[in-house]
Amino acid sequence: MLRKMTDVDVKEGLKVILSRINEACKRRTPELESVEPRLVAVSKTKPVKLIIEAYEGGQRHFGENYVQELEEKAYNADILEKCKDIRWHFIGHLQTNKVNKVLCFPNIYLIETVDSEKLATTLNKNWPKFGPPDSKLKVMIQVNTSGEEEKNGIDPAEVCNLTKYVLNECSNLQLDGLMTIGRFGYNPEDGPNPDFLCLKSCRDEICQALDLDWKNINLSMGMSDDFEHAIELGSTNVRVGSSLFGFRPRKVRK
Ligand SMILES: *Cc1c(COP(=O)(O)O)cnc(C)c1O
């Protein structure tokens, strides 16, 4: 039987995910007790109707990974009217020639995928033209923790340099954290996910080298299949799509 995309009960799904997040928090070490992980609802390929339902259920942070799709949603009249406090996270690969487009989107909140000085420079230079006066654009540095060639993100060995660059040379950017996608299909029963451990050790490294407080550096890691595991390992920003919005057919890439 064919399942319609709009058949899911998003509000109910949201409650379930939030309670699973809550339970996972209880399994963490005491040093993480004060940290509340943020849920980013990944709405890619999903209709506006479901975004509004999730928003009405209390969800504020949403993630999209294609510029054009985010454009359609960010400017959607119903979203603008009903979701005034929506916070968009851009979680896809961002080409520098699309930066200006993304920076004008209403309610753009955070770019999770900064992985080069070039991109940081472009974001930094252009944000003042689009953002509120004297504001800073929040960014995360995306790390390729699995070393897979097809994955975007900077090499773990380069994270410290890029962090230093963002902090010292990009006065219009605010470093919000580090982000990884990690290898697909890792089974947490095999032990702590090495990608998550790697991202955490990148954070330790930059905090030590640059004298930063780790509590100010978010770790964006964990998706539908492993967000609880990621939280147990210190994630503060989980990006959950299909577990919340229902099954998502794979996008056919042209
Ligand atoms: C699609 C996507 C997600 C969510 O994936 P699910 O497995 O559906 O939860 C998270 N992060 C990124 C970068 C994505 O592209």
Automatic annotation (TrEMBL):
**Which PANTHER family is this protein grouped with?**
PROLINE SYNTHETASE CO-TRANSCRIBED BACTERIAL HOMOLOG PROTEIN, PYRIDOXAL PHOSPHATE HOMEOSTASIS PROTEIN
**Which GO terms of the molecular function aspect are on file?**
pyridoxal phosphate binding
The protein in question is named Pyridoxal phosphate homeostasis protein
Source species of the chain: Rhamnusium bicolor
Alanine racemase N-terminal domain location is 36-249
- InterPro entries this protein is in? Ala_racemase_N, PLP-binding_barrel, PyrdxlP_homeostasis
| Coiled-coil residues | none
Q: Which residues carry this modification: N6-(pyridoxal phosphate)lysine?
A: K44
Q: Which cofactor does it need?
A: pyridoxal 5'-phosphate
Keywords attached to this entry: Pyridoxal phosphate
